[in-house]
Amino acid sequence: MAVKLTALVCTLLLVLNPELTNGSRSRSRSKSSEERKHNPNACDLPSDGQVFCYCDNNERMMARDASCWVFNEIKRDDPTWELFSSQNELVKFKLLVRPQGNLDYVPTDAIKHLHHAKSIDIQYAAIPTIHPHAFANLSKLEELFLTRNQIQKIKPNAFAYLPRLKQLKLEENRISSLQVGTFTGVPHLTHLYINQNNITKIEEGTFELLKHLEVLGLTMNNLQKISDRVFRGLMRLEQLELSENQLTELPDMVFSEMSNLREIDLDRNAIQKIGTYAFAGLPRLERLSLGGNQLTVFDTYGLQGSPSLSVLDLRENELRTLTRETIQPMMNQLTNRSAYLLLTGNFFECDCRMNWVHALHNETNSEVVRSFLEELTCNLSSGDIPNALLELEKSKAVQPVRSRNSEYDEDYDDEHLQDTETHNYPPAAKPVASPSGPVTRHLLEIPSDLLPCPSQRTAPPPQSSPVDFNLYYPILSSDALAVQPLLLSTLAALVLARLIS
């Protein structure tokens, strides 16, 4: 009873004297401020300051993971950065810069205390230049992410003395060139992503020290030319991403330095010419993507050195034909269930150079290959095909089919095509079926024995010479009756002309 009475009295006192409560809170705030002053802690910064951090443990020296925000402009030598010495056990550190933060440098004074850090991520800053030794020789660092920081230039030795670094991301910046010395000090780097920059030039030997690099991403830059010397030293590279650049040509042996390559992505460039031996020296190549370029010819012997090639993407080019000799090196792989051969969206001509399509359609175990071959179209011209094929055209006209382009059914989803599923190639102007112009047909609907060969095509006779039937296609037995009246009338005209003369 006495306890209850005491509690009631205390409650009445608090209600009647609210200043007691306010004073208690005030003393609490004062105490907290005093503690911050004598025990500075990066994980216990005031929320209204320039930098605020959220840590997995706010006790000094106890945090392992910290995400920090820069809310207001802060100078390079601001004492706040030194507070990170209170959390030198951090393993993961992320720094996000708000628009008004305007951070234009790498906060080396904070990073230098994070001796145990394995992952550092800085985003949304405005850092024009990465200076030498900007990351303070962090010997345990394994991941460094610097995306979306408006970086324009990287000085030599910027990443010096990061011996365990495995992954470096420099995506979505404004880097225009890469020079020798840029990647000094990262001997065990395995993944390097420099996508979505403005790179126009890479000095020869830039990657020479990256002996362990496995993946190199250079997508969405402005590269117009590459040579084998650019990739010197990349002996272990397995995946090279060069899509959406401005490349117009692939010279011979351009990838020969990278004998371990398994994937090359060259989609959506402006490639018009490929050297005969551009892909030579790649025995482990499994996937080659050249979709969305300007190729009129793909006749290279380089594929003969790539017996493992099982995915070939040539969609949305300007190819007229694809011979058996070109495709032969990967023919065995194309019969496997996991193979892909993507050819839609070209200007293929219906002739005997493409008759291997019929054989592959019958032999492959890949539903994807078979389906894409069934969609493959070619163009017929009524001026240079045999009568039997013309009669077939009259009886069975087919409208052009929609190319799959980048759309795949769920059944076709495969790890080999994770990147190609989102491709949006520019539309190519295709021939329109008309009585006097080219007729678009599904290639597999034309019997292989009726596919004309280029050497048999019609050549118009000289205007001053009599008709020479040897210039036309050999007359099929089914057409003999149809041409007899023409032969007789021509012979009669010749006899009459001789009699008159």
TrEMBL record:
Pfam families: LRR_8 (PF13855). PROSITE patterns: LRR. Keywords: Leucine-rich repeat, Repeat, Signal. Residues 22-42, 400-438 are annotated as: Disordered. SMART domains: LRR_SD22, LRR_TYP. Residues 1-23 form the signal peptide. SUPFAM superfamilies: L domain-like (SSF52058). This is Connectin. It comes from Cloeon dipterum.
